[in-house]
Specification:
The two termini are 41 Å apart. The chain has 25 helices and 24 strands. With 807 residues, it is of the alpha+beta class. Among the domains are: 117 residues, no CATH class; 151 residues, no CATH class; 187 residues, no CATH class.
Amino acid sequence: MHQIFRPFGSAIHTLRQTPAFALTAILTLALGIGLATAVFTVADALLLRRLPYPAQDQLVVLSGASRDGSVDHYPLGYDDASEFSRQSWSFRGAALYAYWGASPTPVREGDGVSRLRRALVSGSFFEVLGVKPEIGRTIRPEDDVAGTAPVAVLSHGAWLRRYGGDPTVLGTRLVTFEDSVAYTIVGVMPQGIDFPSTVDFWAPVVASTPPARMEYVAFYVLGRLDPGATEASARAELTRFFGRPETSPWLHDFQGESQSLPRLLIGDIKPALLVFAAAAGLLLLITGVNVATLLLVRGMGRVREMAVRTALGASRVRVIGQLLAENATLALAGGGFGVVVAAVAVKVFVGVAPGDVPRLDEIGLNTTALLGALGITGVAMLLFGLAPAVLTSRVQSMLVLRSGTALQPLRNSRRGIEALVAGQVAIAFLVLSAAGLLGRSLIRLERAELAFDPSHLLIGQLAVRSDLYDDPAKQTRLLETLLPELTALPGVGAASPLVAVPFSGSRGWDGRFAAEGQSEAQAAANPLLNMELVTPDYFATLGVPILRGRAFTPADREGAPEVIVLSQSATRHYWPDADPIGQRLMAGAELEHVLTVVGVVPDTRYRSLREARPSVYFPLAQSFFPFAPMTLAIRTVGSPDGVVPTIRRTIAEAAPGVALESAAPFETYLAEPLAQPRLTTMLLTLFAGAAVTLAAVGLFAIMMTMVRQRTRELGIRMALGATGQAVSWMVMRRGLRIASVGLGAGLLGSLATHRLMASILFGVSPTDGLTLAIVAGGLLLLAGLAGVIPARSSARVDPVVALRADG
């Protein structure tokens, strides 16, 4: 045993003689292995690890999509979804869940109202998923029938947050505020079962929804594929279902659309994680190249030492063994510190990641990640240690000792080392250019023109008792009562209802309209418009400018001619060459509503930060919608947070059965669509910084080695009259030439991978010339700086000493 560990003791002693080299190699390995392991941990949790659903690849979610591509993820009505689920031969089991997914639901809590996210699901939902509860039971088919006492199943997260993980929670009542439905909690699901995303509790559809409101609830179909069936067959089956004569004519132009459950849950983070994985792989590669370069450079300086060892009787196997022991010590130390780096990096990721990243609470260093780190360390020990050890041991001892040309045997490896450094620069260019593109994209996204003023804007959501305000007229009168009370408050400038909270994506209202004189085919090709139901104060509240015509006035009321305000892109579609003011659109199932355009406003980025949506605005007093909007925009004079208590108290006093469910400044909502781009940019910038640092270390090492190797040559040049400045410039040129080759290779690589970047960029091309030029210039400057010290060292070479030196 002592004989086995003796080389490692000798290795530690040798490495202590060169602390700068040892520290550089260990930190290089720790950085590369640690960050690569951290990314593996994140990818394992979010992409690679199996979801907690048996046979997850058999689970498919179906919806509709228009054949022309203008509409996707279109839900089904309850009757259609139920009938399709019953008759489908592609599924051995099918269930429904509401289009809204896990929608915010106000829940009574003492004297106040809190929010839980409720998912309406059919009785077979958990059976189709194939999951079991942690305690209690799940929703069953017999729970999902009319007249049955409503039950609820809690998510693991809600159980911990709201009930402190109390196992006696079964039988507890959970009462919703809007409809006073009293759910009996019958089960709690295990951690990780949270579909639809971020759900707090599941409830049965029929027992939770009054018959009069069922037509307003839309559903997706969740199915488990039958053996022999495929996603394609399920889609084709839904397409045929849409084409039946008894189906609404509106659906005849639709076709089936499907997503596997894993793909649906991974969502939009997949492109970003693929970029991270590529960056981690490149960083690990540059780490290996850098360590190999350092070992080769060190080996060149130890040729005489190896020659002496061989001359004293050490066999080549023993020399290689000693060198491998040193390299293994470095690799093990680097791997150990790499685990620490990985743990810190994972904690940082979890701390700054957006809260809606799926399975975020499951991310943490685990056995798989630690084994991965050890495996990477082992590969590092073999790849980065074996080749330099063999190369360094290949010395002809007598020739070296007699000739005094210690470095001659390894001079042929100089070009190989230079190629390695050029590769480092290429990889650094790839990662740094990706970070630069993401940085510019983030800046563009943060500065995206919203077309309204988000400052001093408060977004509040009302919880309203449906038994007291059970029709649109009562809901409209409620708003007409509340809004004057709110605008009269100190610190409040204006207020207006909103259909949805900011950046709600598909959670708004959309509609297709026909222009006067359009044929049925032309009307079918019209785009979907975002619909807003507002008061005359809406445009002043949000700060949306009126570009043409006018805003709504109190005169736009019931009985007056029906009017609308349109956004610019909508007017360009309907009347590209005509004045839109006074033009008319038709709306309604029978196009019975004739709407006159009285104003034009910009397209706003209210529904989506990445896309300005064409919109149509209706006056609340002329509403023909089945609901009135219960979200409020409130323009404040000072800080929005400061008026929330007053607003909450005023609403409670002015309107019984109404509560302010939540209130937050607009910036709170703006942070959500920016969170993931910021996270992606931050992480990739971290990778880029590490890659550039490693490339600079590698370039500095090769330049110093070149000066050492060519000391005799430099001395001869200076003895023949070359100035120190000329010699310095020769050394600098060599480094810049190596960096230029690497930049050329990196540019080709970045152009080849532009499709991967395109999916996560905003307003910036993956081949953006300015970004690539800045990155290339920065790396050239860095290469120049890395060559300054070696160049100055070469200028100080004493010709007399150099001519006497080995080499």
